[in-house]
Prior knowledge:
The protein is 33% helix and 28% strand. By secondary structure, the chain is of the alpha/beta class. Strand 1 and strand 2 (17-28) form a beta hairpin. Helix 5 (131-143) runs parallel beside helix 6. It starts with a strand and ends with a helix. Bound molecules: adenosine-5'-triphosphate (ATP). The site of adenosine-5'-triphosphate has 12 residues, from strand 2 and helix 1.
Amino acid sequence: MESVLTINNLTKRYGRLVAVNDLTLEIKKGEVFGILGPNGSGKTTTLGMLLDVIRKTSGDFKWFGQPATKEMRKKIGAILETPIFYPYLSAVKNLEIVAEIKNAPKENIEPALKKVELFERKHDKFKTYSLGMKQRLSIASALVCDPEVMILDEPTNGLDPQGIAEIRELIKSIAKDGKTIILASHLLDEVQKVCTNFAVLKKGDLLYSGLVDDIDKGEVNVEVASDDP
Ligand code: ATP
């Protein structure tokens, strides 16, 4: 399979703290790739470097086999934190603004709303949405650009069980549409339910990378893989 992302010896230091230490990884087209690790393990820092919002200390990465360019970045949809929506505007109006800012076709808005199952509620004001619906609208705002890759940082944080289940199903369904997904999570259970491949980070070090199926086969020391209660 075609390589979507190759990371070579990527490192981030904050003074003496090594937030990400010499990370080497490959993510291929069609994978739902989980970056698993407890709080402070370096997940967000890694994603930040890959999106050029955090400056790397050393090492290298390539998207689609090339150094990142502005044009290529359009293929990457990222939700690192909940985007700011206008509370008194409808979902559809909010997405129109997103499309305008990101220079994305307005025709993508309806399919995005359908995909995240908000089409029926598209004229309702954002402030009337539940947390789960807000998170689904965040995902829709990335889908408006029809990216090839979606990066999601802890997308189920703070949601109730139903909201969590909906987001997980949505991620799987987006992957079925042929998009590659990179998902940061501190929950082993989430990675097992959603991902095909995964890497385990702890204190900036890569402890393991492989297939999620290997967890079931008992080939991974899950003790190190998660801070699940
Ligand atoms: P969380 O889920 O809590 O965000 P994480 O796995 O995403 O955890 P990071 O946020 O990447 O972890 O943090 C990795 C380490 O880098 C932590 O020890 C954190 O305190 C440290 N760190 C992150 N950002 C900074 C910063 N701007 N300055 C100094 N240290 C930082």
